[in-house]
Amino acid sequence: MKDSVIKKLIDICGEDNVKATPAELYVYSTDASVHRNLPDVVVRPEKKDQVVEIVKVANKEKVPIVPRGAGTALCGHAVPIKGGIVVTFQAMDKILKINVPDLYSVVQPGVICDDLNAALKPYNFFFPPDPGSSHSCTIGGMVIANASGQRAIKYGATRDYVMALEAVLPNGDLVKLGAKTLKDASGLQLARLMVGSEGTLGLITEVTLKVVPRPAKTASCVAAFSKLDDAARCVGEIISIPLIPARMELMDSVCIQAVNKAQGFGLPEVEAILLIGVDGHPEVVKEEIAKINETCKKVGATDVKFTEDPKRETELWKARKAMIPSLSKYKEGWVAVMLADDMSVPMSKIPEVVKRFHEIAEKYGILIPTYGHAGDGNLHTKVILDPKSEEHWKAVEKALDEVYDVVHAVGGTTTGEHGSAISKAPFMQKERGPEVVAAMKAIKKALDPNNIMNPNKMMQWEGGVITHLRYSTDGINRDLNLSSWEGDMNICTYCGYCKVVCPTFITENWDSTSARGRLQIAYGLLRSDLKFEDSIARSLFTCTMCKDCYRRCPSKVKVPDIVKFARADLVKNNLATEGHKVMIENIKKTGNIFGDTEIEFPIRDGEVPLFIGCQYLSRPNQTKLYLRILDKLGINVKVMKEVCCGYPMEALGFRDEFEEHKKK
Questions:
Q1: Residue 612 lies in a domain
Q2: Listed residues 391, 418, 445: the one ending a domain
Q3: pLDDT beyond 90 at 560
C-alpha cells in the first residue's frame, strides 16, 4: 500500500487510530475461522463521518476494505484475504437511543450484544438474537452475518429485528435504509439486503433494532437419551405437539464429554441430550413443561430434569455457549476447527443427517461431533483433528464435500447463521447454482464496481477452503522458550471470551493489547511469521498478569504463562525495557525491587511464620498495622528478614536470573 494512502487515513482518523505495526497487522489478520492473511493497515474510526472519508479514499485508490467487529466470525468474514484496510468498529460502541414505546433501540455497530441486553433489562425488554459469542460479538457483525443463535426457533434471526440502518456505500455515500416503524413497504427493502451481505456491499455505521418485552417466566430442562436417534426424533415430536420452545439444543456424546471435561459441568454422559428452554406467562410455562416432559419420555428419554431456578438456567446455557472452545479439550493433541458447521436441514431429517456425519467422520479418521440449534434444524458440527497433520487437513477437505452433499440431498442449506465468506463459499455456490451466484455478483458489481468491499468472499470466492491456514503444519521454531506451549496455542479457538475482561484491551481498545491478541502474537513468533521488534514487545509487556483471561477461558488456555515464556524470548532478543533491567539488577544486588539497601524489617520471634513480601517496602505503616491486628487477635507471628521471592524476574521473562535467584 502506498504511504500516501496511510497518510490520508491518519489525516482522517488521527495517528492514534491508524496502525500498521507488525503486531497490529498480525492480530487483525484473522478472526475465529481457520484462515489468516495480513492487512496493510488497520483503522479505528470513532464517528460515521470518518467512515465516509475512509471509504472514499479506498474507492479512489482501489484499495480493498474489510469491516471488523469483534473478530468472532467463524468463516473468515474479517480476514483481509486481499490485504488492504481493515476497519475495526470497536470505538463506535455507543447505544444512541432506547425507545420502548416505539419498540426500538438505535446503536452504533461496535455495541456488544450482551451490553445492549444489559441496557434494555431495566425496561424489561430485550433483543432476542443470542449467538454463542454474545459476550463479545458486536451488533454490526451480527447484522452483516445475519446471526441468530439459540432463540431463533421462537424469536427469529437478526434480520427480523433490523428496522433501519445507516451504511456507507462503496462510492462513499452515506445512506439511510429502512424506517423506524414496525411496517415499511416503501420501495425495495435495501436494509434487508445489507443484512447477511458479509461486508461486501457497504459499511454499516448505525442500526435501529426492534426490541420486545422480556418473558415473565422461563424454565429449562436437560433430557437424556441413550440413543442419538431418539434425541433427534424428539425434536420433531415436541414441535408437533404443537409447541414452539424458546430454544432446543442437541448435544451428542462427544460434545457432552468435552463440556464436562473442560467445564467440570456434570451433564449426564449418555449418547445425546436435549437442552430445552421455554418462556412466557407462568401458566403457559407450567403447561409446556408438562407436555415436554411427557413427550421426551414417550420418545425414549432416560431422564428429564427441569429447573426454574434462574441461576441454574444460566449455568446450563453457559455450558452450551462454551461448546466450541470446550471441544478443543476433548482429545489430547487434537483441536476443534471451524469447518463443516452451521448447516440447516429440515427437522425431520436430523436423525438421518447426524448418522451420515458420523459415518463420514469414521471414514476419514477424524471427529465430527454434532450439536446445535436442533429446534430450527441448524446443526453446528465441528471438525476435531490434529492441526499439525497435513494428512488430516487433506482428509477434512474430502470429508467436507461429502458432508455438504448430504445436507443438500435432504433439502438443507449450507449455512443457517454463520454465513459463507471463505470457509463455506464453495458449498454455498454449489447449492445456489451458477445462475443465482451470477445474480449475486451482478448486485455486487452494481453497488461496488471497483470491488473494494471485502473482495473475494462469498459469491466471488474461487478455489477450496483449506487455504491461508492460521495453523502451522510445517514446523515451528524449537529454539524459543515458547515452543513448549504450541499445543495450548492450538487449543485456543479465538472465541473472544478473554478479550472482554482484559483490562489493557478495555483501556486501549486495540486487539494487540488483549489476551487473545497476545496469544496470536506469541504464535506468530513461534511460526516465525513475526520478528522480535518493538511493537511485539509492547504488546507482550503491557499484560498485567491479572489472569482474568484464564478464569474466563472455557478451554483453560494459560495465556499469562504463554506471555511469560514469550517475554523470556524477548529478553533474549534484547527487548527488555530499561525499567525492567533496573528492577532485576536491584533484586540481584539488594534483594528487593526498589534497590533499598537499608531496610529495617520488623524482625520478631513467634510461633507462626509470616511472609511479608514486597508490600513492607512500599507500605511499611500498613504492615505495622497488620502486625498490631494480629497481636490483638492473639496470633504470635514470627518475622524474619526476607529477600524478593523472584516473581518479577519470572513474570518479566528473566528466566535465567530467576533460576539463579531461587537458589538463595
A1: yes
A2: 418
A3: yes
Per-residue model confidence as pLDDT tens digits over 583-608: 999 999 888 888 877 667 788 899 99
Q: For the sheet containing 18-19, what is the strand order?
A: 18-19, 41-43, 85-88, 65-68
Short-list 45, 199, 134, CA closest to 496 = 134
Dihedrals φ, ψ of 177, to 5°? -120, 145
Tell me the CATH number at 558.
Answer: 1.10.1060.10
With respect to residue 264, please indicate whether it lies within any of the assigned structural domains. Answer: yes
Q: Which of 308, 306, 237, 303 is nearest to 273 (CA)?
A: 303
What's the CA gap between 67 and 383, in Å, rounded? 27
Select from 492, 534, 486 the least CA-distant residue to 517.
492
Residue 53, Cβ neighbours under 10 Å: how many? 18
What's the confidence (pLDDT) of residue 617? 62
Judge if 366 and 260 occupy the same domain: yes
* Dist. CA 47–CA 45, nearest whole Å: 6
Model pTM greater than 0.90?
yes
Task: Give the integer Cα–Cα distance in Å for 312 and 303.
Answer: 17
Q: Which of 390, 418, 446 is the last residue of a domain?
A: 418
Is residue 28 one of the residues assigned to a domain?
Answer: no
Q: Which residue(s) pair with 86 in the sheet?
A: 42, 66
pLDDT value for 552: 92
Give the model's pLDDT for residue 19. 98
Evaluate whether residue 38 is within a structural domain.
no
Provide DSSP, 258-308.
HHHHHH------SSEEEEEEEEESHHHHHHHHHHHHHHHHHHTEEEEEEE-
First to last CA, the chain: 54
527 DSSP assignment = T
- Taking each helix axis from N to C terminus, what angle separates 390-409 and 350-364, rounded to the nearest 10 degrees? 160
Are residues 113 and 127 in contact, defined by beta-carbon separation less than 8 angstroms?
Answer: yes
Mean pLDDT of 173-180: 98
Q: How far apart are CA 45 and CA 609, in angstroms?
A: 56
Q: Do 618 and 588 belong together in one domain?
A: yes
Q: Both 309 and 290 in a single domain?
A: yes
DSSP state of 170: T
**274 and 225 in contact (C-beta within 8 Å)?**
yes
Pairing of strands 247-252, 343-344: unpaired
381 and 275 in one domain?
Answer: yes
Same domain, 273 and 303: yes
Q: Name the maximum alpha-carbon separation found in the chain.
A: 88
> What residue numbers bound the domain in which 329 lies?
219-418
Sign of CA dihedral 331, 335, 339, 342: positive
Same domain, 528 and 644: no
Query: Residue 97 in 3-state DSSP?
Result: strand
502 is written with which cell numbers? Answer: 482484559
Ranges assigned E (strand) in 12-168: 18-19, 41-43, 65-68, 85-88, 95-99, 104-107, 125-126, 162-168
Handedness of CA 295, 296, 301, 304 (dihedral sign): negative
Burial of 276-292, coded b for 16+ CB within 10 Å and e otherwise, reads bbbbbeeeebeebbeeb
According to DSSP, the β-strands at 41-43 and 85-88 are: parallel
Q: Using CA atoms, how far apart are residues 138 and 71, in angstroms rounded to an integer?
A: 9
Q: d(Cα 431, Cα 408) in Å, to the nearest integer?
A: 7
Q: How many domains does the chain have?
A: 3
Inform me whether the pLDDT recorded for 473 exceeds 90: no
State the burial class of residue 543 (Cβ atoms within 10 Å of its Cβ: 0-12, 13-18, 19+). buried
The pLDDT of residue 351 is: 87
